[in-house]
Amino acid sequence: MAGERRNEMRTTTLFDNGELRTFALIFDDGDEPVELITGFARDNRISAASMTAVGACRNVTLGYFDTEIMQYRSTEVNEQVELLSLIGDIATKDGEPTLHAHVVLGRKDSSAVGGHLQRANVFPTLEVVLTETPAHLRKRIDPHTGLALIAIEE
């Protein structure tokens, strides 16, 4: 039905050599990418990956980590925007895959706004390429910021 949030995405495996996989994830009208990408990673046992994406969306929530209060501030972008760039990673935190993605959004007047992607409503499409990495990226809570940051083991 028109206007309903479907929360379904189409996926295909672009490459698989047993240790390294690359997927295409295609989102349609109403899909919520943060939730769906995280679920896809969990379902496919992806604990470390990088990703890029382009598309368009509306009703986006962006985050900005404010070092004065040591937490995220959220900004709502409640208009149709082009997703000019999305880059991010998936790493594990407390044994679960966690998405960390930054976006740049293009407005109708060609101005741009960006930040940490917290939530979005895809319209009409979003195209993600997700590439698994062979080395596991583990996140640990940083005692200074309280953020889950990638910890590289020596």
Features:
154 residues; mainly beta; 60s Ribosomal Protein L30, Chain: A; seven-stranded antiparallel β-sheet; 61% strand
Question: Could you explain how this protein is built, in words?
Answer:
With 154 residues, the chain is mainly beta. The strands form two sheets. Strands 1, 2, 3, 4, 5, 6 and 7 form a seven-stranded antiparallel beta sheet that branches. The protein has a two-stranded antiparallel ribbon with strand order 8-9. Strand 8 (138-141) and strand 9 form a beta hairpin. The longest helix has 11 residues, at 33-43. It has one helix and nine strands, in the order E-E-H-E-E-E-E-E-E-E. It has one domain: 2-Layer Sandwich (60s Ribosomal Protein L30, Chain: A). The N and C termini lie far apart (52 Å).
Detail the topology: elements first, then pairings.
Blueprint: E1 9-16, E2 21-28, H1 33-43, E3 49-66, E4 71-77, E5 81-93, E6 96-106, E7 112-132, E8 138-141, E9 148-151
Antiparallel strand pairs: 1-2, 2-7, 3-4, 3-5, 3-7, 5-6, 6-7, 8-9
Mind telling me which CATH architecture this is? 2-Layer Sandwich
- Which CATH class? Alpha Beta
| Uncertain ranges | 1-5
In CATH terms, the superfamily is Hypothetical protein, similar to alpha- acetolactate decarboxylase, domain 2
What would the average pLDDT be, to the nearest integer? 91
Radius of gyration using CA atoms only: 16 Å
Oligomer type: single chain
Intertermini distance:
52 Å
SSE series: EEHEEEEEEE
Output the CATH topology.
Answer: 60s Ribosomal Protein L30, Chain: A
**What overall geometry do the principal axes of the alpha carbons give?**
flat
Structural class: mainly beta
User: How much of the sequence is in beta strands?
Assistant: over 45%
Number of domains: 1
